[in-house]
Amino acid sequence: MPADELQQPLNPAGPATNGPQAHARMDRSSSTFRTLITALSKLRKGGHYKGGEGVLNIVRIRESGRSCTGHPGSKYWFYSLCAIRGRPLPIMPMLIYIAYCVLVVELLIHKVPGYGDIIELKALIVPVQTLGLSLFLLLAFRTNSSYDRWWEGRKLWDGIASKSQDLGRMAVGWVAPKDKQLASEIIRWSIAFPVVAKSVLRGHGDLSELVSILPAHEIAALTKMGNRQSMVALKLTRLIQKASVHLTPAITNSMDNSVRGLLADVNSCMRIFQTSIPLAYIVHLRAFLVLWLGLLPFIFVSSMRHWAILVCAVIGYELLGFEDIGVEIEAPFGVDYNDLPLDQITSDLFTSLLEYLDELNQDED
Question: Mind telling me which residue stretches traverse the membrane in this protein (predicted)?
Answer without folding.
Answer: 89-109, 121-141, 279-300
